[in-house]
Specification:
CATH class: Alpha Beta
Number of domains: 1
CATH topology: Nuclear Transport Factor 2, Chain: A
Number of strands: 6
Number of helices: 4
Strand content: 35-45%
Shape: elongated
Radius of gyration: 15 Å
Structural class: alpha+beta
Order of helices and strands: HHEEHEEEEH
Helix content: 25-40%
């Protein structure tokens, strides 16, 4: 599997909540940079994705995931994640990006989360309107 196949498979695994497949695409020492915190290790990183998905499923009436992957260099990829959420008769579209690099073994060895301008604030306003408390 080459870098593009790894990147595509990882995004698909996250969109379908196939966390076992996602973990198999991460290097054992992968680092995940998320809002000033670094999580290290494939298992710990996948656990963070799993926890976020579980919280969303328990908190909202319906959530769907979409994504769009672009290749920035032979080993660097950017994905735009879109969460489509329905709750209490209202809908919300939240977008963020993640940038990841693929190593020589075609495993993802670094992930960087990117908050897009205004997206967190719009999400916070939606959560307030529908009475959902953020887990973290």
């Amino acid at each position: 599997m080459g870098p593009q196949s790894t990147a595509s498979a990882f995004v698909k695994a996250l969109d379908t909540e196939d966390f076992g497949a996602a973990q198999g695409l991460l290097a054992p020492g992968c680092a995940y940079a998320f809002r000033g915190k670094i999580t290290r290790g494939a298992g710990e990183i996948v656990d963070s994705y799993r926890a976020a998905a579980a919280w969303a499923s328990a908190s909202f009436d319906r959530i769907r995931y979409e994504s769009a992957l672009t290749q920035e260099s032979p080993a660097r990829f950017r994905v735009r994640f879109v969460d489509l959420t329905d709750h209490a008769g209202q809908s919300h579209r939240h977008e963020c990006e993640q940038v990841f690099t693929v190593d020589a073994q075609s495993l993802i060895d670094r992930i960087e989360h990117v908050d897009l301008p205004g997206e967190r604030e719009r999400l916070d306003a939606f959560l307030e309107r529908v009475g959902v408390k953020r887990s973290v």
